[in-house]
Each structure stands twice: as C-alpha cells, then as structure tokens.
Hints:
The protein is 32% helix and 21% strand. By secondary structure, the chain is an alpha/beta fold. The strands form three sheets. It has a seven-stranded mixed β-sheet, sandwiched between helices. The protein has a four-stranded antiparallel β-sheet with strand order 2-3-4-11, with no helix packed on it.
Amino acid sequence: MSESLNRAPAVGVRGNWSSPSERPVFPSAAFEGNAGGGFEPAACVLCGHDDADLVYEAPDRLHGSPGRFRLVRCRTCTLLYLNPRPTRAAIGAYYPADYEPHRRHPDEMPPKERLDWRFAIWKRATAVERYSRRGRLLDVGCGSGDFLYGMRRRGWRTVGVELSPSTAEYARTRLALDVRTGELHEAKLRAASFDAVTLWDVIEHVHDPVGVLRQIRELLGPDGVLAMSTPDTSSLDSALLGRYWAGLDVPRHLYIFDRTTLATVLARAGLEPVGWRNFTGNYHTLRLSLGFVLDERVGSPGARRALRRLVGSPGARALCLPYSAVVNRLQRGPVVTVFARVASTPGQAESIAAGLGRRS
C-alpha cells in the first residue's frame, strides 16, 4: 500500500452537537506508514491482500465529524473498504446519540416518517417469511427494537442484540423486548436455536464480518435462514451519485459490498446464498445523497436551503417514483438483501461465491 493511503485524515471541524460539552473527543490520526492515534491500516478482509486502489476520499457528510476518510478497492477481489479505519476502541466516537438507527420508536415519529419505517419493516418481515416458518428470531444490531416489535406482533418469538446500552434499555423497558446488551459473542445464546437471524444494515459496520457470520452460522437451527441487508456498491444510485452516495457513510461503514463480495464473505463463513433482493429503500436515503451534492456544489447558503426544501418536497418524491420503479425492475436498488443457509457441504462454500454472486 502506498504512503498516500496511510497518511492521517485531514482535519476539519464541523458537527451536529447541541453544546460544546456534548461534542465527543475524536481520535487524532498520525499515519506515516504506521497505525496510531485511533486509526489502523486495514488489509482486505476477504482475501487478505493489501494491494488496493484509492476510489474515494470523502468527509463524514452525515454527521460532520473531523477528518477525510479513504475508500479503497482491493485489486484481487474488488471489495471496497475503508483504509485506514478507526480502531474498535475509537469507532464509537463517530456514532452521535442521534444516529439514525438509535432513534425513537416509530410510534413516536412524525406520521410520514412512521409510514416509511412501517413499510420498510413490512417488506423485511414478508421477505423473511418466504424462507422461514414463524419461530424463533434473532435480530443482531436491533437498535431500538422496532423490527423485533413488529415481528413479535406477527407471532415470532424474538431476541435482539444491541451494542448501545441506552438503546437496548429502551427496547427492554418501553417495548418489553428481550434485548441483550453488547456484542454477539457476549449474548450467551444457545447454538442451533434460531429459525431466522436478521442483520439489517449492520455487516458494513463491523471490523470482522467473517467472524460475526461464523457466529451466526452456529446459532442457526436446522433449515434456519440468515437475512442480511447492506448498501450495494453496484447499485444505480452508487453509479450515478459516486462519492455523494449516502450508502458510503464513512467512517461508520468499514466495507461496501456488492453481490459478488457478499457471496464471498458468506462463503468464508460457511454460509450459502439461497436468494437475493434489491430494494430502492425509502426516499430519505436518496434525499440525503442529493443534499450532499448541494452542500458541495451550491455556494450560496440561501440557494442551498431553497434547493434542499425542493428536494425534500412531496413533488420531488413523486417525481422519483418512475426512477424507483425502473431500479426495482432492474434489481439495481441501493440496498441488497441476501438470504443464506448453512452450506450444504462443509468446505464447498469457497467455490460457490463466484456463481452465486450473479444477479438472479
């Protein structure tokens, strides 16, 4: 890896905190070929090589934390990943208290936002039930528990795991859900005890995705299914919006997958894809991306505010409906969901990645 990919992120100060006392202390990076200051160099998690090309250098557009962050593409297996990346100890500083998945339950949201989230939960629930009977379900990275709450109402017996103590406590006290605080390996779950495990927009955040998926493989019961979603770097949104695409979300997203690299990471964990879906997501994500374009390309604050209001209007949302229909038809939506089971023959998983990564 060249020196330029290992140097410290440049520092610029902007943020979304209500007072200086609430502003987290961000790690300062000191890279001159060596890890330091809360950042570490990263090799490709799929193939182990560190020969990669710089694709994007971008700021934290969503929350404005200091720094510019580099996404590189592995020359061997094409995985897109953050390098250097925050260490496990440092990554928490980049998740403010109002981080989207940690927000209030949908019943406490404005009506339109609540409708969007409930529709998203319905899509996920019906997709899972195509592959599994209603039984015992584990949601890893369950946030405030809205998906678990909906699945319990549909007749599932639910368990969640959530890293954020306050968010997990909310799910337990307000929604009476069984949510364990901490990482998956700390949850003390019985092997082969779940009919379905869900991983919604989580795998791109973890430092060791192969390790997490291997733990999930051990938790799946006979004919159990994993349902996992993540931003798709081969999507039409990604192709059109480039470095402004909200799916990049550096530095919280450590990896950005496509179908081929998802099939590979599953294979390395001993799991075999059995189905794929691509969704356009909700308009909120596209609106975020367009807002990032305006922030950088429109100099006048007044014009920027006016255009942001226009992008967020019901009319703009309606104009995007034909685009969403085409994207759905082409299976090129910004979020890919894969359904996987334990590989039928031990040791064969590595050989299936290339074939199962094709669009179906």
